[in-house]
UniProtKB/TrEMBL annotation:
Domain of life: Bacteria
Keyword Cell wall biogenesis/degradation tagged: no
Domain (4Fe-4S ferredoxin-type) ranges: 1-30, 35-65
Coiled coil: none
UniProt name for this protein: 4Fe-4S dicluster domain-containing protein
Length: 400
């Protein structure tokens, strides 16, 4: 039976719970807000299925193969505006739906938590746009649903983190011609508990009910994307960046990540998915024709199936083909795990005893320095020199 003796040895993909023939495994939240498998030993028949599908116990070995790489921007301006980067996933998903398919992706629900859900209509694809900087729950029998659709002959697209993709592949036990997998290059997955604390904090600070949030809004453009908090009365008029929003500051400080993210088994160039997608901030380095501040996606294509799909949808994009080595150059998250913050342990202890307001005011207070940096970024944006100023800042400080 599956036993998690060290938290870093579980990525929370839920494949073990899905494969259990007796439903003896439940995913339960620990005191940091992350889900881990708990086995009902009276129900368990000790068949070993859960251990066989674990992507950390059985990580796919990296073997070089031929890849293709592109920088893309969706030609549909509405899709491009609503997407975190260049709208690549929407085009892939549309292709699947137009072939009588089903698309599984992550949406931020009305409970303000990230969940994997299925859609079968193109008009519902907006639910998957924009990043979700919080670990998603792959619950509700998602793996079994996918297998059922595949065996019915339906086309299925599944998008998630690399560990979720490998967990699904292990669960399915074989390759399916009608399965399309898209992994998103992942910095780390933050705690749902801490995000709930953030929502609690914003309710108090904004004195209003939080309807939803957008983690990477392009209100100030792609290069200065911001956290957008939408309440009952503010009409979405909250836009704070990585330097000033408490959630973004916590996420990029690596203080609230899942333990497995600090020793990730899935950071590699050659992956089991059909596509790997992620941001491209330095568009001008690859193309003068693509817009420099509307968002662009790097697309790494791993399989023959992926190449066939890209050729079928390429007219949806403005794009440029580049060498795979150029695509991954400088993308540390492809191959390197982020280091844990030294204050992580005390942060989670405080999270279990403090209100959201107390927690974020202690660890990420709105200091004079924070206010000044926010003003500088806004001024650079309004003067039209943000991209140049940011490039200089990164070069001098080696910080984002």
């Amino acid at each position: 039976m599956i036993e998690v003796n060290k938290k870093q040895d579980c990525c929370g993909c839920t494949a073990c719970a899905a494969i259990c023939p007796k439903d003896a495994i439940a995913m339960k939240e620990d005191n940091e807000g992350f889900l881990y498998p708990t086995v009902d030993k009276e129900t368990c028949i000790d068949c070993g299925a859960c251990e066989r599908v674990c992507p950390i116990i059985h990580t796919a070995k990296e073997k070089p193969f031929e890849q293709a790489a592109y920088i893309v921007q969706n030609k549909d301006q509405k899709i491009l505006r609503e997407s975190t980067a260049g709208g690549a996933f929407t085009a892939i998903a549309k292709y699947v739906l137009h072939n009588n398919g089903v698309v599984f992706g992550v949406e931020l629900g009305t409970d303000l938590m990230a969940h994997h859900v299925a859609v079968e209509k193109e008009n519902d694809l907006y639910r998957f746009r924009n990043s979700k900087y919080v670990q998603s729950s792959v619950g509700g029998g998602t793996h079994r649903q996918i297998k059922s659709f595949l065996e019915q002959g339906r086309f299925v697209c599944f998008s998630g983190t690399p560990c979720q993709i490998e967990g699904l592949k292990n669960f399915l036990k074989k390759d399916y011609d009608n399965l399309v997998t898209v992994d998103v290059v992942c910095r780390a997955v933050p705690s749902p508990l801490i995000f709930r604390k953030y929502v609690e904090y914003q309710k108090k600070v904004l004195s209003d009910n939080i309807k939803t949030v957008r983690f990477r809004d392009k209100h100030y453009g792609y290069k200065y994307s911001t956290m957008n908090v939408i309440t009952d009365r503010n009409h979405g008029n909250y836009h704070q960046g990585v330097e000033s929003d408490p959630w973004l500051r916590a996420f990029f400080s690596n203080i609230c990540d899942r333990p497995s993210c600090h020793s990730c088994h899935f950071r590699k160039q050659y992956r089991v998915s059909d596509f790997t997608i992620w941001d491209c901030f330095n568009v001008g380095r690859f193309s003068k024709e693509l817009d420099n501040d509307k968002g662009a996606t790097r697309v790494l294509v791993h399989t023959k199936k992926g190449r066939e799909i890209f050729n079928a949808i390429k007219d949806d994009f403005s794009y440029v083909e580049i060498a795979p080595e150029a695509a991954i150059a400088g993308a540390k998250e492809m191959k390197e795990s982020v280091a844990s913050n030294g204050k992580r342990e005390s942060f989670f202890k405080d999270a279990n005893r403090m209100s959201g307001e107390e927690l974020f005011n202690k660890y990420f207070p709105e200091t004079f320095k924070v206010k000044v940096e926010h003003c500088i970024r806004l001024t650079c944006y309004k003067l039209g020199i943000y991209s140049a100023a940011k490039k200089l800042y990164v070069r001098l400080t080696h910080k984002y």
